[in-house]
């Protein structure tokens, strides 16, 4: 470890050239006031100029992407965290009569209560109360919805062996999340379920759009981890201002109006405005950075940001240049059975004119090799002889994109059940009658 | 001589400090001045309850944890070399897994 006493102090001092402590640097905008925040490598901003800069970035991204029309209703997805808390405050200011250019939509707040997947965390009820108070303070209409309501989106029930006579939806969602084998799969599954639920519920409650609090920092992490997760095909939808028509079958679109500001800027904004937040521990809390792909990517990005402050913009601007992919009619003999992935609702990336050369086919191939080496007992022992459900599970795979298939392979029992039912549902709902008929024959 | 400092841990960082967000502490510093680098060592030995690697990396705070001194970005104040004054309020805000 490092020494901090004695001579080392002198060395440290000499590393920092022109800044004398306490003296404070001038703002680069007005060249008058003392700066309070450093943005990028040289952007020193005073309180007033930072405030303008921050609000401008939010408004500019709304202006560049005119998706929300006058009079529409927008639901802000609140998590208790700093990003969504800042977003609520920004919208509130933008709607007030004092705003320079008043926003012309109506807003509400949706909070997804995930407590059923964290039954062992103390003080959850207190935290939920705190969140409720913050939402009341905002003055917006608010809705608390439980994560398990995502099962209602597709009207899915799963069987779990709980020992109790009835199984509640909260037990089901707990089982679905926790029957994933890796933290990577759990985090990914939870993210997809959250998006699904937000889009569905917001529409049910009469909203036209959902605002997510994802900043450029968060998106830089998501972009890189999505690439690592094999999700490059969906990058534009996963990290762009809008997710386009992705959720149209179940609800409205998800928008990211904070994608031009960094998390550091958000924290400063919240500090200046005394915006309160509530921290909810999640699956990644107190886990090492090696525990999942997402956590590792986060450490990587934050490590870079510390040394190179423009990392976020560099990464996320790359994603601006990526255009969304429209569904391409593939060869009739492709392995996909649906146009859209039944879990993430992204366009299927597995249609290829030569399906034998696709990444999905590779996934199958390597699985076959593994099974061959371990003997064929693997799959049957997991299912415990339930042949019908084995069959069901195998049908799931045709309706999942490459990345979701990889996630599915890291799940077992309840989560696999859920994905299978989702697949059948999406095939039934699918507009491809042909495939529906085909599957009905098999069923 | 002792120095009174207000320490705040927010955004989830409080989880590493017994779920307490605000700490008013008195640090014995003798005749010398105390900078943030030394404060971090003091926190490590006296306040941090678990998982050092989640709060610090090497001699500094873990990337992703923002530091403010009296609501001013510490990058403007010399970061680790900032010399703490009586009643300074130093805030550590975790932005890891925030959303
Ligand atoms: Zn200024
Ligand atoms: Zn998918």
UniProtKB/TrEMBL annotation, chain A:
The UniProt entry, under Gene3D superfamilies, shows: HUPs
Subcellular location as annotated: Cytoplasm
| Family according to the record | Belongs to the CTU2/NCS2 family.
Which InterPro entries does the UniProt record give? Answer: CTU2 (IPR019407), Rossmann-like_a/b/a_fold (IPR014729)
Please give the function described in this protein's UniProt entry: Plays a central role in 2-thiolation of mcm(5)S(2)U at tRNA wobble positions of tRNA(Lys), tRNA(Glu) and tRNA(Gln). May act by forming a heterodimer with NCS6/CTU1 that ligates sulfur from thiocarboxylated URM1 onto the uridine of tRNAs at wobble position.
Instruction: Tell me what this protein is called.
Output: Cytoplasmic tRNA 2-thiolation protein 2
Q: Which pathway is this protein assigned to? A: tRNA modification; 5-methoxycarbonylmethyl-2-thiouridine-tRNA biosynthesis
Q: Which Pfam families does its entry note? A: CTU2
The protein's predominant localisation is: cytoplasm
Record keywords, A-Z:
Cytoplasm, tRNA processing
**Source taxon at top rank:** Eukaryota
UniProtKB/TrEMBL annotation, chain B:
- PTM remark: C-terminal thiocarboxylation occurs in 2 steps, it is first acyl-adenylated (-COAMP) via the hesA/moeB/thiF part of the MOCS3/UBA4 homolog, then thiocarboxylated (-COSH) via the rhodanese domain of the MOCS3/UBA4 homolog.
| Pfam families associated with the record | Urm1
Compartments, record wording: Cytoplasm
Is the keyword Membrane assigned to this protein?
Answer: no
Question: At which residues is the cross-link Glycyl lysine isopeptide (Gly-Lys) (interchain with K-? in acceptor proteins) found?
Answer: 99
Q: Which InterPro entries match?
A: Beta-grasp_dom_sf, Mopterin_synth/thiamin_S_b, Urm1
tRNA processing in keyword set: yes
Which keywords describe this protein according to UniProt?
Cytoplasm, Isopeptide bond, tRNA processing, Ubl conjugation pathway
Q: Give the record's pathway.
A: tRNA modification; 5-methoxycarbonylmethyl-2-thiouridine-tRNA biosynthesis
User: What's this protein's family per the entry?
Assistant: Belongs to the URM1 family.
The cross-references to PANTHER family, in alphabetical order and at most eight, read:
RURM1 PROTEIN (PTHR14986)
State the function annotated in the UniProt record. Answer: Acts as a sulfur carrier required for 2-thiolation of mcm(5)S(2)U at tRNA wobble positions of cytosolic tRNA(Lys), tRNA(Glu) and tRNA(Gln). Serves as sulfur donor in tRNA 2-thiolation reaction by being thiocarboxylated (-COSH) at its C-terminus by the MOCS3/UBA4 homolog. The sulfur is then transferred to tRNA to form 2-thiolation of mcm(5)S(2)U. Also acts as a ubiquitin-like protein (UBL) that is covalently conjugated via an isopeptide bond to lysine residues of target proteins.
Q: Kindly provide the name given to this protein in its UniProt entry.
A: Ubiquitin-related modifier 1 homolog
What is the organism field in this record?
Clavelina lepadiformis
Provide the organism lineage as a comma list.
Eukaryota, Metazoa, Chordata, Tunicata, Ascidiacea
């Amino acid at each position: 470890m490092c020494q901090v006493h004695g001579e080392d102090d002198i060395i440290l001092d000499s590393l920092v050239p022109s800044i004398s402590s306490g003296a404070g640097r001038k703002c680069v905008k007005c060249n008058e006031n003392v700066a309070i925040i450093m943005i990028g490598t040289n952007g020193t901003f005073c309180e007033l100029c930072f405030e303008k800069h921050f609000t401008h970035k939010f408004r500019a991204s709304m202006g560049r992407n005119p998706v929300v029309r006058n009079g529409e209703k927008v639901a802000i997805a609140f998590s208790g965290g700093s990003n969504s808390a800042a977003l609520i405050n920004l919208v509130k200011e933008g709607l007030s009569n004092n705003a320079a250019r008043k926003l012309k939509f109506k807003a509400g707040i949706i909070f997804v209560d995930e407590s059923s997947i964290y039954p062992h965390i103390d003080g959850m009820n207190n935290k939920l109360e705190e969140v409720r108070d913050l939402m009341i303070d905002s003055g917006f209409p608010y809705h608390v919805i439980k994560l398990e309501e995502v099962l209602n989106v597709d009207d899915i029930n799963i069987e779990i062996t709980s020992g109790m006579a009835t199984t509640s939806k909260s037990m089901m969602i707990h089982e679905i999340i926790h029957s994933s084998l890796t933290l990577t799969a759990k985090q990914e599954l939870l993210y997809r379920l959250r998006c699904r639920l937000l889009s569905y519920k917001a529409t049910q409650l009469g909203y036209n759009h959902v605002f997510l609090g994802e900043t450029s920092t968060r998106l830089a992490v998501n972009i890189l981890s999505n690439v690592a997760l094999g999700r490059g095909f969906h990058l534009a939808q996963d990290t762009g201002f809008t997710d386009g028509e992705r959720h149209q079958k179940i609800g409205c679109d998800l928008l990211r109006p904070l994608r031009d500001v960094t998390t550091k800027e958000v924290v400063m904004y919240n500090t200046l405005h005394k915006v309160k937040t509530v921290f909810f521990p999640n699956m990644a809390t107190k886990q090492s950075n090696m525990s999942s792909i997402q956590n590792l990517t986060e450490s990587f990005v934050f490590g870079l940001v510390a040394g190179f402050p423009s990392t976020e913009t560099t990464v996320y601007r790359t994603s601006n240049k990526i255009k969304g992919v429209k569904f391409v009619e593939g060869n009739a003999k492709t392995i996909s059975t649906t146009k859209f992935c039944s879990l993430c609702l992204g366009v299927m990336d597995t249609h290829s004119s030569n399906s034998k050369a696709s990444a999905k086919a590779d996934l199958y191939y390597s699985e076959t090799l593994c099974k061959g080496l371990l003997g064929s007992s693997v799959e049957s022992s997991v299912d415990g002889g339930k042949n019908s459900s084995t069959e069901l599970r195998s049908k799931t795979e045709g309706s999942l994109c490459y990345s979701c298939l990889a996630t599915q392979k890291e799940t077992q029992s309840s989560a696999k059940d859920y994905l299978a039912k989702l697949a059948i549902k999406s095939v039934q709902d699918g507009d491809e009658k042909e495939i529906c008929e085909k599957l009905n024959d098999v069923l | 001589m002792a120095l009174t400092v207000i320490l705040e841990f927010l955004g989830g960082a409080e989880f590493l400090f017994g779920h307490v967000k605000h700490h008013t502490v008195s640090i014995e510093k003798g005749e010398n001045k105390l900078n943030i680098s030394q404060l971090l060592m003091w926190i490590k030995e006296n306040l941090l309850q678990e998982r050092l690697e989640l709060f610090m990396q090497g001699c500094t705070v873990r990337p992703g944890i923002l530091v403010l001194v009296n609501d001013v970005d510490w990058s403007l104040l010399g970061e680790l070399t900032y010399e703490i004054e009586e009643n300074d309020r130093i805030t550590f805000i975790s932005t890891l897994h925030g959303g």
